[in-house]
Amino acid sequence: MSVLLPCPFCGGEAYLTNERPKSRKIWAVYCGKCESGTDNLLREDDAICMWNKRQLAINAESEQLMEKFDDCRACLARLADKLKIELPNEAPDEGVSEWHDHLIYELDKWKP
């Protein structure tokens, strides 16, 4: 049996199950923690492959989101620089909301 990757949603341990033990023809993979799972498939290897591909797809999507987040943070920093607005010393680790709130506060001062 191939190795099952951890759950892409919660990191829980995955397990393979035979949905119809008598026929031995329907396989699926589920998370033991959050119970997310694959579709029922006719082959054991297909169920494992589907589960592991989902993990890889979510990892790729996470990378894309982090790139967009970094672009957003850089854009806010450039905007603040052009407007001569001093941002907090450290770049936010969790998100851009602290910088965003500070920029909005400073921009509100410019309203006529």
What is this entry, summarized?
The chain has 112 residues and is mainly α. The protein has helices spanning 44-82, 97-108, and strands spanning 14-18, 27-31.
Essential attributes:
single chain; 112 residues; mainly alpha; two-stranded antiparallel sheet; 2 helices; 2 strands; 46% helix; 9% strand
How would you describe what is shown here?
The protein is mainly alpha-helical and 112 residues long. It has one domain. It is 46% helix and 9% strand. It has two helices and two strands. It has a two-stranded antiparallel ribbon. A hairpin with an 8-residue loop joins strand 1 and strand 2. The longest helix has 39 residues. The radius of gyration is 23 Å and the shape is rod-shaped.
- What's the number of extended β-strand segments? 2
Number of domains: 1
User: Number of helical segments?
Assistant: 2
Could you say which structural class the secondary elements and strand pairing correspond to? mainly alpha
* Overall spatial form: rod-shaped
Topology as a string of helices (H) and strands (E): EEHH
Instruction: Report the end-to-end length measured between terminal Cα atoms.
Output: 69 Å
Spans of at least 5 consecutive residues with low confidence: none
Oligomeric state of shown chains? single chain
Biggest beta sheet summary: 2 strands, antiparallel
Q: How large is the share of residues in beta strands?
A: 5-15%
Helix share, percent: 40-55%
